[in-house]
C-alpha cells in the first residue's frame, strides 16, 4: 500500500444550483482542487487585512456528477476492500441542505437516484453471488444519535419494556460497539433495502428556512460482513464492517432563525460536530498522546472508524451560492484536516472459540467411529477409548508385576491409553530400582566421579581404588572378590551385554556391576514381546486385505445407484471435485498442465532474476576495484606509449575484460528475463482462461445434473430430445412457475433499470404499502364510533392491505 493510501481520502461534492457563484468558486483542471475568491468589502475601509482567497487540495471534486459516478469514485473500492476483510467508513459532512442525505441514501423515487447505501448493499450481494469459495453472511444495523441520545431505528418492539432498553457505547478489545443495538441478518438485497427504508421512516426530520426535510440527527448504517471458507473446515473467520454515516448539517442560527425544539436540536448538532472537529485535529497531530473520544456519543461511536485500522473516506457536501461561502469554507477546512489523518488498514481475522470446540468435538467423534469400525473388522468389540479408571490402572500394575516375575508371557493391551499406562508403570519401576540401588551403594561405598582424576589418583595412593579404577569400601579385597564371583558368573552372551552396560554406566559416573543383573529382565522381556508384535503385523495385514475385499464388494451396486439422482443436491465443493474427476477431467488436466508450466516459468524467472542480481553485485565490485586502480595510477603517475595510448597493468586489464564479459552475460540474462515475463503473462492468461472455463462448465453441469426437474432428466440423457446446454437453465427451472411468478418475472423484465432494480422497487413497494396500511388503520381508529363508515372504509381498502 503506497503513501497516498495511508491516509483518509477526502472528496468535495458541490450541490447543483442555478445560482452557482462562478466568479467566487473555481475548480482545478484535474478536478482535485477548489479555489475561492472573495472581493474586499469597501465599507471596511482602506486598511483591510482580511483574507480574500483560499485554495484547497482534495482527492477529488464532484461537480455536476451523477449518483453512479459519485459512488464509483467514493465508495466502490472501499466496499471491495471490505469484502476482503478491511473495515471501511464513509462519512458525509456539510451544512444543512448541502445534499448529505441525498449522497448517502439518495431518492427512492427513481432507481438511478439511489445513494451510497443502496449501491453498497447491491455491490455486496453481487459479490456474494459470484463467490464460490467463501460462505458470506451479512447483517445490518441502523443507529441514530438524536440530542446526544442513542436510538435504534430498526427496533422491532416499540412502546414496551423491551424497546426501552438503555443503549450505551462500550469499548472492548475488538473495537467499539453499541450495547442494545439490534443487528439484523439479511440474505438478499431486498431484505437489506427493506430495513434501510424502514429505518429512514423512523428518522427525525424537521423543516426550516434552508431545508424542508432537514435531518435533525446523526445516522450510522452499518453493514457487517462475515466470510468463511467453504472448501476447508477452517474455524478462522474474516470479519469486516462498513460504517455509512450521514451527519446532521451544521447551521448558523443567525441564518436559519430556528426557535423552540429546532433550536435545541441545532445546539446539540453544532456541539457534537465541534467535538468531532476537535477529534480530527487531535488525530492529525502525531504529538498528541490522548484523543478525547468520550466527549460526545458521536465521537465515541466513531472511535475505531476515524483512521487507525480502517479505510476512511470523507465527502464534504458544499453549496455553490455566494450566500453560503462561509459555510463552504468551514466544510473544506474540515476536509483538509481529515486528509492529514493516517490510516493503517488490516484484515480482521478471528477464530471463533465455539466453532473451534465444535470442530474438535466433531473430529473426536469421527475418530472414535473410525476406531470402532476397525475394531469390529478385527473382532474386538469390547475396546473402549475413555480415560482409564482406577480399577483398570490397578489391573495393569498387577499384570506388569506378574510379567516381571515371569508368571505371564504377555500383557493384554487393547488401546493406546493402556500402552501409555504400561510405559508409565515401567518407568516408575525403573526409577524405584535406581533409587534403591543408589541407596545401597551409598551405604557401602564412597562414590567418586570417574572424570575426577585428582580424587581417583589420591584414592589409588590410599589403596582405596584398584588398577581398573574400581572403588573399594572398607572391607578387604578378598571379600569384594567373593562378592564379585557371586555376581559375575553368566553365559558368554550375557557377559557381552553386561560389558556394554558397564561402559554405559562409566560414562554416567555410576557403578555397573550391580545394575547389570537388573537390566537382564528388560532384555528378556524385549525378546518375549517381539513375537506377538510380529503376529500382530500378520493379523493386521490380513485384516486390511479383508477390509479391502469388503469395501470392494458394494462398489458394483453403488455404481448402479450412482446413476440415480440424489434426494437433495450435494454441496458445490463436493460436486466440484466429482466434476473434475468425471465430465471436467479433460479441462482439469489442461488446467493443471498450464499451471505446472506457469510455475516452472516463474521458478526459472526467479533463478534468472537472482543471477542478474548476482552479476550486478559482481559488476559493482569490479567497478570499485577499477576505480581504486585508476586512483592509484593517477597518484603514481600514468604511462603512455609512443603513439600516446595509455599503458595499464595486467591486473586492471583483467578487470576490464571481466567487466566486459559480465556486461554481455547481464544483457543475455536480462533478455531472457524479459522473454520469461512475457511467457509468464501469457501462461497466466491461459491458466485464468482454463479456470473460468472449468467453473463455467461446472455451473452448467451442476445445474443440469441437480437443479433440473426429474422428469426433464430423461430428455437430457443420450438419445433424448434435448442435448445438455441447449436449454438455458433459467427457462428449465421455471417450467412449473404459476401465474403470479410469471407476472413477477415479466414485471422485472419491464422495470426501467432492468432486473437489477427489482430488489429496490420491491422494497420501495413494501414501504409504500406499510405507509398506506398505517394511514388506513389510523383512519379506521378515528371512525371506530361509526360502524357504517368502518365497513365502507374496509370496502375501499386495497385487497393486498386487507390480506396483510
Please tally the β strands and state the result. Answer: 19
Overall, the morphology is: extended
With helices defined by DSSP (H or I, 4 residues minimum), what is the helix count? 27
Report the major sheet: 10 strands, mixed
Helix/sheet category: alpha+beta
| Mean pLDDT figure | 75
Radius of gyration: 43 Å
Task: Classify the helix fraction into a percent range.
Answer: 40-55%
The low-confidence parts are: 157-163, 474-563, 729-735, 785-804
Terminal-residue CA separation? 53 Å
Relative strand content: 5-15%
List keywords for this structure.
microtubule; three-stranded antiparallel beta sheet; microtubule motor activity; 804 residues; alpha+beta; extended; 19 strands; disordered C terminus; 54% helix; 27 helices; phosphoprotein; ten-stranded mixed beta sheet; Kinesin-like protein
Protein described:
It is a single chain. With 804 residues, the chain is α+β, with helices and mostly antiparallel strands. Helices cover 54% and strands 13% of the residues. The strands form five sheets. Strands 1, 5, 6, 7, 8, 11, 14, 15, 16 and 17 form a ten-stranded mixed sheet that branches. A three-stranded antiparallel sheet has the order 2-3-4, with helices on one face. The longest helix is centred in the C-terminal third of the chain and has 58 residues, at 650-707. The radius of gyration is 43 Å and the shape is extended.
Amino acid at each position: 500500500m503506497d503513501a497516498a493510501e495511508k491516509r483518509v481520502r477526502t472528496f468535495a461534492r458541490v450541490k447543483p444550483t442555478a445560482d452557482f457563484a462562478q466568479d467566487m468558486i473555481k475548480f482545478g483542471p484535474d478536478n482535485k482542487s477548489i479555489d475561492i475568491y472573495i472581493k474586499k468589502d469597501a465599507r471596511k475601509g482602506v486598511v483591510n487585512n482580511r483574507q480574500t482567497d483560499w485554495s484547497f487540495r482534495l482527492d477529488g471534486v464532484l461537480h455536476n456528477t451523477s449518483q453512479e459516478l459519485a459512488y464509483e469514485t467514493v465508495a466502490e473500492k472501499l466496499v471491495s476492500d471490505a469484502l476482503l476483510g478491511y473495515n471501511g467508513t464513509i462519512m458525509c459532512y456539510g451544512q444543512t441542505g448541502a445534499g448529505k442525505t441525498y449522497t448517502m441514501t439518495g431518492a427512492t423515487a427513481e432507481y438511478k437516484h439511489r445513494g451510497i447505501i443502496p449501491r453498497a448493499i447491491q455491490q455486496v450481494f453481487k459479490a456474494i453471488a459470484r463467490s464460490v469459495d467463501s460462505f458470506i453472511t451479512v447483517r445490518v444495523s441502523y443507529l441514530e444519535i438524536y440530542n446526544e441520545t442513542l436510538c435504534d431505528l430498526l427496533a422491532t418492539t416499540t412502546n414496551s419494556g423491551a424497546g426501552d432498553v438503555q443503549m450505551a457505547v462500550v469499548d472492548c478489545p475488538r473495537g467499539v460497539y453499541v450495547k442494545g443495538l439490534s443487528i439484523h441478518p439479511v440474505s438478499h438485497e431486498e431484505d437489506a433495502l427493506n430495513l434501510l427504508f424502514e429505518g429512514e421512516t423512523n428518522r427525525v426530520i424537521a423543516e426550516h428556512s434552508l431545508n424542508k426535510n432537514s435531518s435533525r440527527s446523526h445516522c450510522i448504517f452499518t453493514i457487517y460482513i462475515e466470510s468463511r471458507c467453504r472448501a476447508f473446515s477452517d474455524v478462522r473467520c474474516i470479519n469486516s464492517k462498513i460504517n455509512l454515516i450521514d451527519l446532521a448539517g451544521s447551521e448558523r442560527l443567525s441564518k436559519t432563525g430556528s426557535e423552540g425544539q429546532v433550536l435545541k436540536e441545532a445546539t446539540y448538532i453544532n456541539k457534537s460536530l465541534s467535538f468531532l472537529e476537535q477529534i480530527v485535529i487531535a488525530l492529525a497531530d502525531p504529538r498528541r498522546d490522548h484523543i478525547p473520544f468520550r466527549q460526545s456519543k458521536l465521537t465515541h461511536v466513531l472511535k475505531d472508524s476515524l483512521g487507525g485500522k480502517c479505510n476512511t473516506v470523507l465527502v464534504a457536501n458544499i453549496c455553490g451560492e455566494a450566500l453560503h461561502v462561509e459555510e463552504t469554507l468551514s466544510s473544506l477546512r474540515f476536509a483538509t484536516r481529515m486528509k492529514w489523518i493516517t490510516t493503517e488498514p488490516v484484515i480482521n481475522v478471528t477464530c471463533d472459540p465455539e466453532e473451534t470446540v465444535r470442530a474438535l468435538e466433531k473430529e473426536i467423534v469421527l475418530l472414535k467411529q473410525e476406531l470402532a469400525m476397525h475394531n469390529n473388522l478385527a473382532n474386538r468389540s469390547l475396546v473402549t477409548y475413555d480415560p482409564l479408571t482406577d480399577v483398570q490402572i490397578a489391573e495393569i500394575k498387577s499384570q506388569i508385576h506378574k510379567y516381571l516375575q515371569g508368571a505371564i508371557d504377555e500383557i493384554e493391551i487393547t488401546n493406546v491409553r493402556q500402552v501409555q499406562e504400561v510405559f508409565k508403570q515401567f518407568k516408575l519401576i525403573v526409577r524405584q530400582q535406581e533409587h534403591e540401588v543408589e541407596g545401597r551403594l551409598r551405604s557401602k561405598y564412597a562414590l567418586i566421579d570417574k572424570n575426577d582424576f585428582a580424587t581417583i589418583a589420591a584414592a589409588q595412593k590410599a589403596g582405596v581404588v584398584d588398577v581398573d579404577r574400581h572403588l573399594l569400601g572398607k572391607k578387604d579385597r578378598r571379600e569384594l572378590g567373593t562378592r564379585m564371583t557371586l555376581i559375575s558368573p553368566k553365559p558368554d552372551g550375557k557377559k557381552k551385554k553386561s560389558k556394554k552396560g558397564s561402559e554405559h554406566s562409566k560414562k554416567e559416573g555410576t557403578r555397573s556391576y550391580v545394575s547389570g543383573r537388573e537390566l537382564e529382565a528388560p532384555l528378556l522381556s524385549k525378546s518375549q514381546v517381539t513375537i506377538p508384535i510380529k503376529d500382530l503385523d500378520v493379523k493386521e495385514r490380513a485384516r486390511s486385505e479383508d477390509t479391502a475385499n469388503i469395501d470392494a464388494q458394494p462398489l458394483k451396486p453403488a455404481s448402479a445407484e450412482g446413476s440415480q439422482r440424489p434426494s437433495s443436491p450435494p454441496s458445490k465443493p463436493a460436486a466440484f471435485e466429482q466434476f473434475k474427476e468425471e465430465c471436467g477431467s479433460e479441462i482439469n488436466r489442461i488446467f493443471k498442465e498450464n499451471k505446472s508450466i506457469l510455475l516452472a516459468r516463474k521458478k526459472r524467472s526467479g533463478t534468472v532474476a537472482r543471477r542478474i542480481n548476482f552479476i550486478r553485485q559482481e559488476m559493482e565490485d569490479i567497478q570499485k576495484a577499477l576505480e581504486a586502480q585508476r586512483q592509484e595510477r593517477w597518484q603514481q603517475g600514468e604511462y603512455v606509449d609512443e603513439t600516446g595510448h595509455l599503458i595499464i597493468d595486467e591486473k586492471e586489464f583483467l578487470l576490464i575484460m571481466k567487466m566486459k564479459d559480465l556486461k554481455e552475460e547481464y544483457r543475455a540474462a536480462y533478455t531472457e528475463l524479459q522473454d520469461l515475463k512475457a511467457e509468464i503473462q501469457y501462461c497466466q492468461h491461459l491458466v485464468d482462461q482454463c479456470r473460468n472455463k472449468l467453473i463455467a462448465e461446472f455451473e452448467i453441469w451442476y445445474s443440469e445434473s441437480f437443479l433440473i426437474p426429474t422428469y426433464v432428466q430423461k430428455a437430457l440423457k443420450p438419445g433424448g430430445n434435448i442435448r445438455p446446454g441447449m436449454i438455458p437453465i433459467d427457462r428449465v427451472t421455471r417450467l412449473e412457475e404459476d401465474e403470479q411468478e410469471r407476472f413477477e418475472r415479466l414485471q422485472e423484465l419491464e422495470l426501467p433499470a432492468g432486473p437489477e432494480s427489482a430488489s429496490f422497487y420491491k422494497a420501495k413497494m413494501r414501504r409504500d404499502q406499510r405507509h398506506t396500511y398505517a394511514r388506513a388503520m389510523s383512519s379506521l381508529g378515528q371512525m371506530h364510533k361509526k360502524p357504517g363508515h368502518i365497513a365502507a372504509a374496509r370496502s375501499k381498502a386495497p385487497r393486498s392491505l386487507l390480506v396483510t
